[in-house]
């Protein structure tokens, strides 16, 4: 079972959370249709470290940014979404 360490609630089973999307799939509100299509339908699905938005739906309801390896599912960081937006992005590898 994958545990996610919510910064507000502590470690919880992943079934308490809902997956949002990867950080690179966040679109600006004024995105052109071509840009939206490219981001939503033609994005990469890399093996390795990915930064993803998850919501603690059955807990504090906060949006969190998980840094997760897509193969091993190891989670190396969990930060609140607001803090993550101001932090430099990590590149996947
Ligand atoms: Zn929580």
Would you write up a description of this structure?
Strands 3-4-5-6 form a four-stranded antiparallel sheet. Strands 1-2 form a two-stranded antiparallel sheet. The protein has helices at 33-41, 81-86, and strands at residues 3-6, 10-13, 18-22, 49-55, 63-69, 75-80. Strand 5 (63-69) and strand 6 form a beta hairpin. It has 93 residues and is of the alpha+beta class. It has one domain (3-27, 37-86): 2-Layer Sandwich (Folate-binding fold). The radius of gyration is 14 Å and the shape is globular. Residues 6, 8-9, 56, 59-60, 62 line the site of zinc ion.
Considering the chains and any ligands shown, give keywords for the structure.
alpha+beta; 4-stranded antiparallel beta sheet; Folate-binding fold; binds zinc ion; 93 residues; two-stranded antiparallel sheet; 6 strands
Summed up, what is this model?
The chain has 93 residues and is an alpha+beta fold. The protein contains 2 helices and 6 strands; from the N terminus they run βββαβββα. The strands form 2 sheets. It has a 4-stranded antiparallel beta sheet with strand order 3-4-5-6. It has a two-stranded antiparallel ribbon with strand order 1-2.
CATH C-level:
Alpha Beta
Number of strands: 6
Strand content: 35-45%
| Widest sheet, order of strands | 3-4-5-6
- CATH structural fold name: Folate-binding fold
What global shape is seen? globular
Question: How helical, in percent, are the residues?
Answer: 10-25%
Termini distance? 24 Å
Q: How are helices and strands ordered from N to C?
A: EEEHEEEH
CATH architecture label name: 2-Layer Sandwich
| Low-pLDDT residue intervals, each spanning 5 or more residues | none
CATH homologous superfamily annotation: Folate-binding superfamily
What summary fits the major beta sheet? 4 strands, antiparallel
Average of pLDDT: 87
Structural class comes to: alpha+beta
User: Gyration radius, to the nearest Å?
Assistant: 14 Å
Number of alpha- plus pi-helical segments:
2
What binds here, in terms of ligands, is: zinc ion
């Amino acid at each position: 079972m994958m545990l996610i360490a919510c910064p507000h609630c502590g470690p919880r089973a992943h079934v308490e959370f809902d997956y949002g999307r990867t950080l690179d799939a966040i679109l600006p509100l004024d995105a052109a249709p071509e840009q939206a299509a490219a981001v939503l339908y033609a994005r990469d699905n890399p093996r390795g470290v990915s930064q993803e938005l998850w919501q603690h739906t059955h807990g504090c309801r906060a949006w969190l940014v998980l840094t997760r390896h897509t193969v091993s599912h190891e989670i190396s960081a969990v930060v609140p979404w607001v803090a993550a937006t101001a932090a430099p992005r990590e590149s996947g590898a």
